[in-house]
Amino acid sequence: MKSLVKITVIALVFASFVACQNKSKPNYQFMPDMYEAVSYETYSESAAFSNGVEAQLPVDGTVPRGHLPFDYSNTIDDYNLAKTELMSPLDSTQIDFVRAKGLYDIYCGICHGTKGDGQGNLVKREKILGIPKYDDIGRAITAGSIYHVIYYGKNTMGSYANQLNEEERWQVVAYVLDLKAKL
Question: Does pTM top 0.70 for this prediction?
């Protein structure tokens, strides 16, 4: 008899849930804040945005976090200036050739080759032509010129400033100079 009562109670509870459900309109929301977030008008609360502009330009002279300004522009004159006077801020203990090799293989080796001989996979497949070796006499590359080219790009090579941060760029520069010395 007790089991019959339990089954009846369970059936009534189940029937009450099923009977209250109406599929033609949404069910009750017991915690509506989880479904419908309270929206805020962020720019309307500040007097700085009262002129209708949604975003403001940064103050002159400010530098974003994690970014150091590069004092050389993308011109031939500044390339030559960087070639003569720009030096690596990393000393020999800060250079990690294993990490630098990994970065070089990812970003540079596909065109310049793993040995710096200008025979990367794209050159071998004739997708890109005219990649010179690092030890060509006419090139006379320096740490500053390599960094400038990584930062701005040159000829058909694009910029890698967005892919590599400053420290990683200098690691790649050290690795390229090491490859140049080995050629």
Answer: no
